[in-house]
Amino acid sequence: MDFAFSFNETFTVPAFGCSKNNVMWSIFFITKITNRKELIAWAVYHRSISGRKVPSEQFWISSGTSSKKEEVWGAMTRKYWNIHLEEMMEARVHLGHGIRKWNPRMAPYISAKRKGIHIINLTRTARFLSEACDLVFYAASRGKQFLIVGTKKKAAGSVASAAIRARCHYVNKKWPGGMSTNWSTTETRLHKFRDLRAAQKTGRLNHLPKRDAAMLKRQLSHLQKYLGGIKYMTGLPDIVIVVDQQGEYTALRECITLGIPTICLIDTNCDPDLADLPIPANDDARASIRFILTKLVSAICEGRSS
Q: For residue 95, what are the β-bridge partners?
């Protein structure tokens, strides 16, 4: 336990309505704790210090000061990501859903009501987006792999272009159920996809009977549609970026099951407790989605180049 250190940190359990409480944490360095499962294990192990139970599902660690937050993330330095409120207003990041469709857990991220819709607090959006950029920059500089998920029609194009620019994996069509939790089957399908692509490039499909060639081409088209964005993936991603939490609930639950950290774009009808790092923003407008992805992709590219 050479890298162990202790500090006072504030943590909350919003899903269970617990109040804030200062406790003494004994936590490993970032090289020791790499995902949420290990962090939860240490929380459960040290729950006797605070005298209250820590749920086994999830909790959120909030920062009291910036120095404490940097200690939680490791040797991660804060950078300026050129996030302006005017640009977010132009991209309609502040527009939420109707008042009747809201999730009460999004109350801390809502600033007002206008004409029957909730207005998102852009100050919090800028803060969480900056923290997400710091995190992906730090992870990209250490060679971590990212997966961007967004299958709604308004987000599919932006997800594909952003992932290609940042050299990340992406899913912009229907999420194949069990893609991450049943990785062995997904890996088998990826091997088949690569073999069919190689056969098409070398012209081997043209030497087969027409019926067999047509059947294989249909399989190749189907695999290209749903697995084209992850054709170069060799293992589970280190961080998953989710554009629409409501639409990608299956993908989010699989990430929670496997302990994969998630960065979620959450609207006023979403549950912020499901995401490791939520970014409150409008997930229905193309301009809003493009703005958030552009900032994250810029941080990833800068981290890879560093």
A: 119
| In the block, residue with structure tokens 């049943």 | 182
Q: What pLDDT score was predicted for residue 77? A: 63
* Amino acid in the structure at residue 114: R
Which pLDDT score, from 0 to 100, does residue 222 have? 92
Q: What's the CA gap between 250 and 246, in Å, rounded?
A: 9
Amino acid (one-letter) located at 110: I
Closest CA to 246 of 155, 167, 168: 155
Cα–Cα distance between 243 and 246 in angstroms, integer?
9
| Segment (H or E) for 80 | none
> Which residues lie below 8 Å from residue 195, measured CB to CB, with a gap of 6+?
none
Q: Note the pTM of the prediction, 2 decimals.
A: 0.72
280 within 8 A of 83, measured Cβ to Cβ: no
Report residues of the chain scoring pLDDT below 70. 1-77
Residue appearing with tokens 């996809």? 193
Between the alpha carbon of residue 78 and those of residues 28, 75, 87, the distances in Å are 21, 10, 21
Number of CB atoms found within 10 A of residue 83's CB:
16
pLDDT at 75: 54
In terms of Cα–Cα distance, which of 228, 200, 230 is closest to 213?
200
What is the per-residue burial (b if ≥16 Cβ within 10 Å, else e) of 120-154? bbbebbbebbbbbbbbbbbbbbeebbbbbbbbbeb
* Complete DSSP assignment for 215-276: HHHHHHHHHHHHHGGGTT--S--SEEEES-TTTTHHHHHHHHHHT--EEEEE-TTS-GGG-S
